[in-house]
Structure formats: structure tokens, C-alpha cells
Write a structure and sequence with these properties.
0% strand; mainly alpha
């Protein structure tokens, strides 16, 4: 399928939203080091998509969810995941013991990579059996989540006490395990809810 080198109006809108939120996020964040660590993956993702835009353009559905994931990352970078104001209010309403915005981030950490992995596996025709493909996608997402937890551990060792805002455990002893569980749940929900719409958009690219 021949691709145009020019950006479409939707591409400009995507970039406008991305950079708008990024700039807002970077203005007087709660903790500058946390901002760099949390917003960094969104920026890296943008560079990777720019590099592969012509050789491997993604489906509009995937671009949409990647943008949403980037926004979640940048909001967390702005306030730190333990202090997002909206979720402080929600915590008071439901009488939670902690701010649970980080669970939204980890849910997206499974949801969006699952969609990306599914797109690559389908378009590259690497795994044809639907059952095995879903199993591999879930395994990839769980492995990615576990690796991110290792990155948080390494960051804590290197940075010391200043890494507390990045870790966002809020004293919850099972934070690492629950983070991975939320990522796995996100991947599972993605595979269930987006299969049909994703298949429709992938079909012209096969």
C-alpha cells in the first residue's frame, strides 16, 4: 500500500494535542526529575513513530490509543502519579487510602502495548492461530510490565530517596505486584474489546 510522505490534517491534530499536553506538563511540574522519567517514554515513542511512519504506518485506532497513553504519562509526569488532583478528589469520595492514578497508568501500560503487539503480529503474519497469538500478546505485555518494574528498582538504587515520587508506591507493600496485575488486565480488556474494530483497520494493510 503506497503511503504519502505528507502529514494529514489528523496527523497535525495528533501532534498538536501531543505537544500541547507535553508543554503544559513541563511547566513547573511537581518534581523535575520525575517529569523527565515519566514523560521520557512518550517522547521516545513519538520519535520511534516518526522514524517508522513511512515504512510501517500504524492504524488510526492504534495512533489514537498511543496518544491517550502519552497523555496519561504526561499528566502523571506533571503531578507525580501519587498526587494527581482529580484522583485525590476521587480518593476522598470513595475513601481510598491512596491516590490510584498510577493504576490507570499501569492499565494503559498493558492495554496499548497489547494493541501494538497485535498489530505487528497480524501484519507481519508471525502467528496465525488466534489463541496462540493472544497468549503471546498477554505474555509480552506482562513481560514488559515486569521489565518496567525492574527499571523502577534500578532508578531507586541509582537516585536514592529522590526516586520516591517516580516510584509512587505510597507505602503499599504489594504495589509492584498490583501494577503488573493491572497491566495484564489492560491487555486482556484490549484483546476483548478492540478485536473487531482493529481487524477492520488492519485488513487494508495486509
Amino acid at each position: 500500500m503506497k503511503q504519502s510522505n505528507s502529514l494529514t490534517s489528523k496527523s497535525y491534530l495528533w501532534l498538536g494535542i501531543f505537544f500541547g499536553v507535553l508543554v503544559w506538563s513541563g511547566i513547573e511540574p511537581k518534581d523535575r526529575l520525575t517529569w523527565v522519567l515519566e514523560a521520557g517514554p512518550a517522547i521516545i515513542g513519538l520519535l520511534v513513530m516518526a522514524k517508522t511512519r513511512i515504512s510501517f504506518p500504524l492504524t488510526p485506532l492504534l495512533y489514537f490509543w498511543i496518544l491517550l497513553h502519552c497523555i496519561v504519562l504526561m499528566v502523571g509526569a506533571k503531578y507525580t502519579y501519587a498526587e494527581v488532583p482529580l484522583f485525590d478528589s476521587i480518593r476522598e469520595i470513595f475513601e481510598w487510602e491512596r491516590n490510584n492514578y498510577d493504576k490507570v497508568g499501569h492499565f494503559m501500560q498493558g492495554f496499548v502495548p497489547a494493541l501494538l503487539a497485535r498489530e505487528i503480529l497480524l501484519r507481519k503474519k508471525l502467528v496465525n492461530a488466534n489463541g496462540w497469538r493472544n497468549f503471546i500478546i498477554l505474555s509480552i505485555c506482562l513481560a514488559f510490565s515486569a521489565f518496567y518494574e525492574l527499571i523502577e528498582w534500578w532508578a531507586a538504587l541509582l537516585i536514592g530517596e529522590d526516586a520516591d515520587a517516580f516510584l509512587g508506591t505510597q507505602g503499599y507493600v504489594w504495589d509492584t505486584q498490583s501494577d503488573m496485575a493491572w497491566a495484564l488486565l489492560g491487555a486482556f480488556v484490549c484483546l476483548i474489546t478492540l478485536k473487531k474494530s482493529h481487524d477492520r483497520q488492519i485488513k487494508p494493510l495486509l
